[in-house]
Design goal:
Blueprint (H helix, E strand, L loop, with lengths): L4 E7 L11 H6 L8 E7 L6 H5 L36 H12 L7 H34 L11 H9 L1 H39 L10 H15 L9 H24 L17 H16 L7 H5 L11 H30 L8 H8 L6 H38 L5 H21 L7 H8 L1 H4 L1 H10 L6 H29 L11
Antiparallel strand pairs: 1-2
Helix pairs in contact: 3-8, 3-11, 4-9, 4-11, 4-17, 5-6, 5-17, 6-7, 6-13, 6-14, 6-15, 7-13, 7-14, 8-11, 8-13, 9-18, 13-14, 15-18, 17-18
């Protein structure tokens, strides 16, 4: 009682005051009003403030003494949301998440791209895509704490901070939604389809009961995914990502090792199937480049993963995050390159359009043991279940953000479970209602590709503000522009791949 309280008046002029930037408020409404005066109170050393700091609607208390350069302002709502609820992660956890989200079913399509590009351009394109995407991921990691006192914990928030609230949301909202929700739908399609392959392989013609239909496999898959999704936050699913990373590496090894152990198919050719000086062939090339670009994933999750790591002035979060990404990308390279090279060597131009898993079950069904065939399919199912958890986390975070913003309190266990059941049912409905959505990945993926190849370069320029026409400025500008151009080409290739063979539009008939 009677303690002295010093008032501090902060004038917001041309630039927002960075140490009190509330990114969730920025996402919901607008930025700080320029020219407005904000009043904060500085407490004396003996003043106890536990209740004020626990309330998201209380007055923000600014403690000027003892705050590190990388310390984040107190924002109780962050402690209520699944991405930022726990910040005691480690480089090991981040490596598990990066591996689990970085290896996916798109990599199984790489031999299809090689059948169009040929050996030389296939390897060159794959190598360039690997380096390009590693660099843009490095940019995102460095931008996570680019503003002193602020951590950009979500890709959309970084986009809005770099391009402005309105433009950033316009550019980033749909691609981020697709890369999260769309990836979950594709995981249902691929995980459920692999489950059906597993049942068919194990049972064969000896099963007396009727095997599960495709829709029933999707339903079993989503039920298991929803059960796993009840973990409260991103940091708590590290063990799930560990299992996912192990299974992904194992099925990649099996998918290239089994064909190498067999003799090559008779009559295969390694000549590029692209017609020379033909417009249709150019569009096939664009589609093949899209397959290679989609083989590397996870840029929409890198900031969210980094948000689970602790950070201080002496040990910022980008240090353990880069260690995790370096390890993850080394493993990814050791998985992806053999898949592409061995798959193309084994199947050449006879590689099925659906990729390596289909090739294994159709071309090696009679010369490979049921154990290996079934194990490969089972590993794909397990990895799809684990990847669903991390790709669904941004959607869970958004749903809980809306609730906590309105109710000003954290979600109860039942509310959280309800949100996750709702999201799981929604993705299941889309997978069943629009099963041909897998044919649209080239088109929609072309729209989302700038999130990986272009936006990080432009955001680096906007936030870091390197000297105009300097080497870094020019390099990032050119690389970002090339990313936009490549995205347009991939989009065009996706359109052509729909128009030429046609698309079988059948709703509710997976």
């Amino acid at each position: 009682m009677g303690e002295e309280v010093q008032e501090v008046i902060i004038q917001i002029n041309d630039q927002p005051f960075p140490t009190i930037l509330d990114l969730h408020t920025l996402y919901k409404s607008s930025t700080l009003i320029r020219g407005a005066t904000y009043k904060y109170t500085k407490p004396s050393q003996n003043l106890q403030l536990p209740n004020l700091l626990e309330s998201p609607i209380g007055e923000i208390i600014v403690s000027i003494e003892g705050r590190g350069d990388n310390a984040e302002p107190d924002n109780p709502q962050d402690a209520w949301l699944p991405i930022t609820a726990s910040r005691n992660g480690s480089a090991y956890y981040a490596a598990f998440h990066s591996l689990n989200s970085g290896i996916g079913f798109q990599a199984l399509m790489l031999p299809v791209a090689f059948s169009v590009l040929g050996w030389t351009w296939g390897i060159i394109s794959l190598s360039m895509a690997f380096v390009w995407q590693y660099y843009t991921k490095w940019l995102l990691i460095q931008l996570h704490e680019s503003v002193p006192g602020t951590r950009f914990n979500r890709y959309l928030h970084l986009s809005m901070a770099a391009f402005g609230a309105r433009t950033g949301k316009l550019l980033g909202l749909f691609p981020i939604m697709y890369l999260s929700g769309g990836a979950c739908v594709m995981l249902i399609l691929n995980g459920g389809g692999s489950m059906r392959l597993f049942i068919k392989t194990v049972c064969g013609f000896t099963c007396k009961s009727q095997p599960l239909t495709t829709i029933e496999c999707y339903f079993v898959f989503i039920c298991m995914a929803i059960a796993l999704a009840q973990r409260p936050n991103l940091n708590s699913i590290a063990w799930i990502s560990f299992i996912g990373a192990i299974t992904a590496v194992l099925y990649c090894i099996l998918l290239w090792a089994i064909p190498l152990s067999k003799s090559r198919l008779i009559g295969i050719s390694y000549d590029s199937v692209k017609p020379k000086l033909d417009i249709a062939g150019d569009f096939d090339t664009f589609a093949a480049l899209g397959i290679i670009a989609f083989a590397f994933r996870g840029h929409n999750l890198v900031l969210e993963i980094q948000a689970t790591l602790p950070s201080s002035e002496n040990y910022p979060s980008h240090v353990p995050m880069m260690r995790a990404v370096n390890f993850a990308y080394l493993v990814i390279a050791l998985c992806v390159l053999p898949l592409a090279v061995a798959g193309y060597w084994a199947y050449g131009d006879k590689i099925p359009a659906n990729g390596m898993l289909t090739a294994l079950h159709t071309l090696h069904e009679h010369d490979t043991s049921k154990f290996l065939l079934g194990l490969t399919s089972l590993l794909v199912v397990i990895h799809s279940l684990t990847a669903f958890q991390i790709y669904a986390m941004p959607a869970f975070d958004n749903l809980e953000f809306v609730y906590t913003s309105k109710k000003m309190k954290p979600c109860s266990r039942w509310i959280r479970a309800g949100f996750r059941i709702f999201f799981g049912c929604l993705t299941f409905f889309i997978a069943v209602a629009i099963p041909f959505i897998r044919n649209l990945t080239g088109v929609i993926g072309g729209i989302a590709l700038p999130v990986t190849l272009a936006y990080p370069c432009f955001m680096w320029i906007a936030i870091k503000k390197p000297e105009r026409f300097s080497a870094l400025w020019c390099f990032n500008l050119v690389l970002g522009s090339l990313g936009v151009v490549l995205s347009i080409f991939v989009f065009a290739g996706g359109i052509k791949s729909l128009v030429e063979p046609g698309i079988d539009v059948r709703f509710f008939k997976p």
